[in-house]
Specification:
Strand 8 and strand 9 form a beta hairpin. The protein is globular. By secondary structure, the chain is an alpha/beta fold. Helix 1 packs across helix 10. About 45% of the residues lie in helices and about 20% in strands. The protein has eleven helices and 14 strands. A six-stranded parallel sheet has the order 3-2-1-4-5-6, sandwiched between helices. Strands 7-10-11 form a three-stranded antiparallel sheet. It binds nicotinamide-adenine-dinucleotide and (2S)-2-hydroxybutanedioic acid. (2S)-2-hydroxybutanedioic acid binds next to helix 9.
C-alpha cells in the first residue's frame, strides 16, 4: 500500500521545502510508499512541474508517483493526507477582511473538493494563512467529513517557543517539553510555559534562577518573541518562513498518523473545551492517540493565562464572524 498525499501550493516556497522530505520518508517513515499530487493554480503549474522533474531525478525508493494538476477534483482524488499550503498572501493595502474573503474563495471550494473526491480516511493540515480560519472554512465546506479531520498548523509556534526556552535556559531543545500554544496562529497566540519542563524539572523554577522577574520576562521577552517570530523572519529574510514551516508541517502530520508520547500543539476543532466556542479551530495542548488528536483536558489555568487565551480566541471569533458576514459559513 501507499499513501496518497496532496500538497496545494506545491509550486511555492513551502511546497518546495516539503516535497523532497516527504518523498525521502521524513513524514511517514521508511516503510511507507508515497504518491504525491501537486495541486496548483495555473500560474503556479510550471514551478510545480519543475519540482516534479527534480523529484524524478532524486530516484527516491519510496516515491511511487507524482502528478501535477490545477484541477481540485483530480488533485484530491483518493488522497489520504491533504496539506493545504497554497493561499492568497496579503497584498499592499489589503485589509484583513479582504484577505479572509480571498482565502474563503480558496478554502471553501477545496473543502468541497476534498469531500467529493478524497479517500474516506482523509486528514487535512492547513498551513496557508490565516490557517485556523482557513481550516474552519474548509471543514465547514466538506459535507460528510468529520470536522476533526481538519487541523491548522501551530507546531511551528511550539517549536519556536521550545527553542527560545532552550536558549534562555542554556539547555538542549530536546530537554524542553510541554510548551503548548493556545489560540490563533497569529500575534495573539499564547505560548504557555505553566506546565513546561526542562529535563523533567519545571521551567518556571529554572527560569527563576536566570531572570530577575519571570513574569516580566514572559510578558515582555518570551511571548512577543515567539508570537512575532513570523514577522521577524519576514523582516530578516525578506519573505516568510519556509524550511521551518515545512519541517513543522511534517512533524504535525507525522505525529497525527503515528502518535505522540507527550503533548504537542495543533489547531483543532473545539468541542467547547476550556470555554473555547464549539466549532472554532483553535490551538490546544493535544496528544495524538490511535490516529486522532485528543485535547489534553483538566489543566489549571491562572487568571493571566485565561486572559491571554480569551484574547486570542476573541480574534478567532472575529475572523469567523467576518467570514460569516460574507455568507461563507
Ligand atoms: P508562496 O507564495 O511561495 O507559495 C504559495 C503557492 O500557492 C503559490 O505557488 C501559488 O501559486 C499557490 N496557490 C495560490 N492559490 C492556490 C490555490 N487556490 N490552489 C493551489 N495553489 C494555490 O508561499 P509560501 O511561502 O509557500 O507560503 C504559503 C502559505 O503558508 C502562506 O499563506 C504563508 O503565510 C503560510 N505560512 C504558514 C505558516 C504556519 O505556521 N501556519 C508558516 C509559514 C507560512
Ligand atoms: C509564520 O509564522 O512564519 C508565518 O505564518 C508567516 C507570518 O505571516 O507570520
Amino acid at each position: 500500500m501507499a499513501t496518497t498525499i496532496t500538497i496545494t501550493g506545491a509550486g511555492g516556497q513551502i511546497g518546495y521545502a516539503l516535497l523532497f522530505r516527504i518523498a525521502a520518508g521524513d513524514m511517514l517513515g521508511q516503510d511507507e510508499k508515497v504518491r504525491l499530487r501537486l495541486l496548483e493554480i495555473p500560474q503556479g503549474l510550471k514551478a510545480a512541474e519543475g519540482a516534479a522533474l527534480e523529484l524524478q531525478d532524486c530516484a527516491f525508493d519510496l516515491l511511487e508517483s507524482v502528478e501535477v494538476t490545477d484541477d481540485a477534483a483530480t488533485g484530491f482524488d483518493s488522497c489520504n493526507l491533504a496539506l493545504l499550503v497554497g493561499a492568497r498572501p496579503r497584498g499592499p493595502g489589503m485589509e484583513r477582511a479582504d484577505l479572509l474573503a480571498a482565502n474563503a474563495g480558496i478554502f471553501g471550494p477545496q473543502g468541497a473538493a476534498i469531500a467529493g473526491s478524497a479517500a474516506s480516511d482523509v486528514r487535512v493540515t492547513v498551513v496557508g494563512n490565516p490557517a485556523n480560519t482557513n481550516a474552519l472554512i474548509a471543514a465547514a465546506s466538506a459535507d460528510g467529513i468529520p470536522p476533526e479531520r481538519f487541523t491548522a498548523l501551530t507546531r511551528l509556534d511550539e517549536n519556536r517557543a521550545r527553542a527560545q526556552l532552550a536558549a534562555a535556559l542554556d539547555a538542549p531543545v530536546s530537554a524542553i517539553r510541554r510548551v503548548p500554544i493556545w489560540g490563533n496562529h497569529s500575534a495573539t497566540q499564547f505560548p504557555d510555559v505553566t506546565h513546561a519542563t526542562v529535563d523533567g524539572r519545571p521551567v518556571l523554577e529554572a527560569l527563576a534562577e536566570r531572570v530577575d522577574d519571570v513574569e516580566a520576562w514572559l510578558e515582555q521577552t518570551f511571548i512577543p518573541r515567539v508570537a512575532k517570530r513570523g514577522a521577524e523572519i519576514i523582516e530578516v529574510r525578506g519573505s516568510s518562513s519556509v524550511a521551518s514551516a515545512a519541517n513543522a508541517t511534517i512533524e504535525h502530520t507525522r505525529d497525527w498518523v503515528h502518535g505522540t508520547d507527550d503533548w504537542t500543539s495543533a489547531g483543532v476543532v473545539s468541542n467547547g473545551e476550556y470555554g473555547v466556542p464549539a466549532g472554532l479551530v483553535s490551538s490546544f495542548p493535544v496528544r495524538s492517540v490511535d490516529g486522532r488528536w485528543q485535547i489534553v483536558e483538566g489543566l489549571e489555568l491562572s487568571a493571566w493565562a485565561r486572559g491571554r487565551i480569551d484574547a486570542s480566541v476573541a480574534e478567532l471569533v472575529a475572523e469567523r464572524d467576518a467570514v460569516r458576514a460574507l455568507g461563507v459559513l
